[in-house]
User: Fold these one by one.
Assistant:
Number 1:
Amino acid sequence: MIDVLSAIFWLVVALGLLVTFHEYGHYWVARRCGVRVLRFSIGFGRPLLRWRNKEDTEFVVAAVPLGGYVKMLDDRETPVPTAERDQAFNHKSLGQRSAIVAAGPVFNLIFAVAAFWLMFMIGIADSRPLLGPTTGLAAEAGLEEQDLIVRIDEAKVQTWTHALLALIPPALDRRAVTVEVEDAGGFRQTTELALDRLGPDFREDRTLESIGLSIWRPDLPPVIDGVTDDGPAARAGLSAGDRVLAVGDTTIDGWNALSAAIPAAAGTGAPIELRIERDGRELEVQLQPTMQDGRPIIGITPPPPDAALQADMERAFAILRFGPLEGLGRAFNETWRLTAGTLGILGRMITGQASLANLSGPITIAQMAQDSARLGISRFLFFLGLISLSLAIINLLPIPVLDGGHLLYNLIEAIKGSPVSERGQVIGQTLGLVAVVGLMSLAVFNDIVRFFQ
């Protein structure tokens, strides 16, 4: 229950920030163009808070925080006195109306750049694309464990996020790519990864597995370094120096396997059986895990990494931190990289090359907001930048009821020399509403499917 409330809280925080910034873009440009704003609302439904400024604009915080709107003076909606028509939205020039409509998505882009800029100045820990064991197409291409991916085609990659953004589009297109890697000794070589040989069952959410790539993860020996006082392990008689050989029927060869086996064994609710080695003798013990933050805990700590593993970890992980000027350049690069990746996936979803399962709704966004907030301010800033960028792109789609649909109407007006007819606008709004509701329903359906997987 606490996790659900936490996820809802961070969803409200994230959407509140992004929607406010988006709607403020419309408001700010509208006021600069001399349009009177009647209401600035964050959320829909029953107002929780409301106040007015000196220009008599009503500001509202409403009960349902999934969106917002800016209502402007417009005699297509309500009669406008002759003396005030110069303040009405529909009496402004085509360029001014277009600027007001485009301002929301533009402000979302500005927010994304600002979020990434601040993230890079604070510093964000990220994993470099260091390979774990390889199989399939990756192994056939000569890629090996401990290789570091430095370039895919012409794209330089520094993180696994960058690598995935560079691999998914050609994988969907079934197009071979060149991959430059660097081994532990610093030697670089280039090879071809035959993505054109991927099978028809390829799924973009399993890109690495389909290609035969895996993420290198540091692993420690399954030797207990410390035992929590009065924890399940201590009560069972475990002590520092014990090596865990098996959990139930699962053989343990490293700390990663141990960490995965404990929750799996605890799922039955029965006591967990451990086989350990102590002073050359094998012993069997039983213990009952306790739950902490929704996870089964037995109360043991791993040993510290040795010098070799420490060197591997330094190669696999990095903190990306830059000064204001370089950070701003990096922020623009990150915005462009994510925009290109998002548009690429969106275009392939429209043509059927990418699965519609990529659409995410409020449940997934809430979970992402909570997870990123738990990982620290830098991760939360990345999440905010990514979602802000997504909102900008979605709002610019040429679908009536979205900002992009209004810009499409304006383009048609510029071409034909007169506004789209009222009947045409009504038909467009109806079709656009059906499309948006359909997309939202699909996104929520995808959320529910992910939740129960």
Number 2:
Amino acid sequence: MHATVPPLAVLPDAPLRRSRADEVYEQLKQDVSDFKLVPGDRFTETEISERLGVSRTPVRQALFRLQHEGFVEVLFRSGWRVLPFDFNQFDELYDLRMVLETTAVHRLCENALKVNQAMLDELTAIWLVSPEQRSSDMEQVSRWDEAFHCALVAAAGNAEMARVHSDVTDRIRVIRRLDFTKQPRIDATYDEHSKILKAIQRKRGDQAAMLLRAHIATSQVEVRKITLHQVHVARRQGASKS
């Protein structure tokens, strides 16, 4: 049994009207996050347009956008390919994430007037629960983990920090999801998140930042251990659920 809580609304709302290219872009990024497209996969614009039921023009626009962001590359006369993971770039993104999040928790402890307390209350409802109330659903915990870190930054009240952090989160999502394939990592996440929240509640900024730094560093080390084999295992597991 685990607690039922509402999803965290920590990211800006999507525009009410999106172009077909935007929809294709979001779907392809989701395919990467869900391991339906993994590093090394090759495909053509025609295959994507037929699968999604759209013309090739929005598909091409979406793919060029994904190419600019480093997810895919165009192959001469042979379609497109999902790029291998760039672990040096992931390292840099984790370093940036650590700066943003530790700065945010200091602000949460030092500037109460700007703090979004409702967001912190939602985090408490998810993470400060008894062991029997914890979720064992790895996919759900992965989503909650991402929302936890986004909420810490958003709750601090600096919109530009939240925007940059959202972009970093978007770019490391696929690799972070692979960190939640084993139960010990879920247990550790609950324990570490609860300690961070308790330090914030007590306005102990240095302690909260130290705990958060160690928490992110552990995840960063795990990312460096990820292999292509794990990615394909995750794809098979995802396919078995669908």
Number 3:
Amino acid sequence: MELWIPITVFAAFCQNLRTAMQKHLKGKLGTTGATFVRFGYGFPFAVLYLLVLHFFFQQPVPLPNATMLIAGVLGGIAQIVATFLLIHLFSFRNFAVGTAYSKTEPIQAALFGFLVLGEHISLTAGVCILIGITGVIVISLARVPLSLAAIRNSLAGKPALIGLASAAFFGASAVAYRTASISLEGTGVAMQAATALVYATALQTLVMALWMVLREPDQLKASLANWRSAVWVGASGIAGSVGWFTAMTLQNVAYVRALAQIELVFTFLASWLVFKETIARSEIAGCVLIVLAVLGIILLG
């Protein structure tokens, strides 16, 4: 098995864990504060990871270059914008279709990867990606009673456009991070990923902290007051980011983001096994499609 596969699965698991803790924290902090702790409390862990690689595993820290600096900025800003757009979707009554569109990230990542890095995906992998996205869309719409007319109206509405924009920014940020990471020379893959991660997380922490100081100071105070819970969000978030950055340094972004859809399977397993929640048949069907897509990418893609 290629190394990027277990690393991606690990990253998806950590992201699932971080999201669960972030949702719990959102009740105390609000959207902005819960988003900030992912970066602000994650940054020290990113630095610690880089220092461990350098001092204990003797991996040299690469010198930054123009490509890394520019791509890191673009990736960090794009990820913040994508996150806010995704959260903004929930302010609409008919957000389900928009949310489903936001899950088209692997396709858009493949497009950006082709345009920016000249990367191609195989026909088999492309089919698997489409199957996986179909599964995600089925799950997204599973519990929403949508008539044909409602879907038709939603397709041209603001939620659909916001969903597509969110997916585009997520896809662009992933390609920008890969560009930043692979541009670094004179060190190993893990250190390439760690250096790009530290730079991007520092930028995101600074941007969000400045925003909160100027626009939402109460959110910043609440984020600091709830540090005992927030530190775990930061730790799990950075653990996932280490996985994402490393996997995307090793492999085409479209493959990594497609395999990452297994996160939804983790979500439903937790809902079923831990919280004893009832799972709809359509949600099970969506999970089956995602698993088939993941297996196809691993075995055939």
Number 4:
Amino acid sequence: MANKIKVVELFAGVGGFRVGLEGYEGKSASSGYKQPFKSEYEIVWSNQWEPSTKSQHASLVYENRFGKKGHSNQDISTVDVETIPEHDMLVGGFPCQDYSVATSLKNSKGLLGKKGVLWWSIHKIISEQRKKPKYLFLENVDRLLISPSKQRGRDFAVILKSLFDLGYAVEWRVINAADYGMPQRRRRIFIIAYLENTHIYKSMVKSIPSKWILNDSIIAESFPAGPHISNISREFELEGDIVKISSDFNKDGRTGLFENAGMMIKGKVYTLKTIPQYEGNFTVLKDVLQNGEVTPEFYIDKEDLDKWYYLKGAKKEIRKNADGFEYHYSEGGMIFPDPKDKPSRTIITGEGGPSASRFKHVIETKNKFRRLSPIELERLNMFPDDHTKLEGVTDVKRAFFMGNALVVGIIEQIGKTLIKRIENGKKVRPRK
């Protein structure tokens, strides 16, 4: 392309979207940073702010890897939109919160959501930009489709309606990275939106919804899927304004209306249940392990193994709460140690530290048990080795970063497909 796609990265963490879109030091994540990667994307501005800590470690790691130019370490809700440069695409893994609408304004700024809810910071940036970004590429946890519990799917409906009001069409899919050969079982929803003046938007208008979702969308070309055997599909309108949707959508509904894939065009939702279709190679846990390079503090003392076996094991026991009330507690067992011949379980933010835990990864090697190293956790998210290594940043914090991060390979693949579609200007690129 003559000009690169200018990107703004919000809720940047340690730069997962940036590594996926730009590559790292000219190399591709999907090749293990061995093959050249020519990127058509350029991050022109980024923001990372962690409200719960004084030390902004994630932002420091980001600056260490990518430089301080164009990077903001300020509460995004307080950033002056006019200071954000014009961009073609906005990306980010925004936090899963309560997206309900608190009030409707009479002035030109439209609608406001609850204070402090970060979706509305994205909404504000888009709505106040002199030139709206043509593309949005967002990531979230898959429970977004069924939140909150008393109005299943309302939060996602609010997002879709607000994007419709801003002039966008939307496609989405829940993707488990391991289903497509990546080393970690990590399910996340990926949302791509297209402004009404783009050729992709115009293609969506003319498309047959089921064909778009299963064959012709950016996500479908990137990560092929077929219809689930249950053949569940739905069509419905997002009725009323955003305030009405916030208060009334699926009220008292016991089940959600959104399936794991779908599209929204001109306020109408089409959604269906899909299953992945993948015939490539698979990466498993043993493929990311370091060989003889892990330091002693990651190994578990023999005298502590009983604690790990207990926490990982099945339980049926009587427990007491803080008030002394006794109750029956039960939970199923987990495989211990973690199998090395399968993709890993999902990394969580509490992965770091030596204390025994039900959810931390433990492997057996040479008749010894150990936790995963920071490099191994980075590899499970397909980051470069030691991406988060920085003086003053502990191994516990590095594990926390990876628990919050996304699988970079998914971003890379979708980014490559989107660029092809933009370059060619074609309505669709049918899958063979």
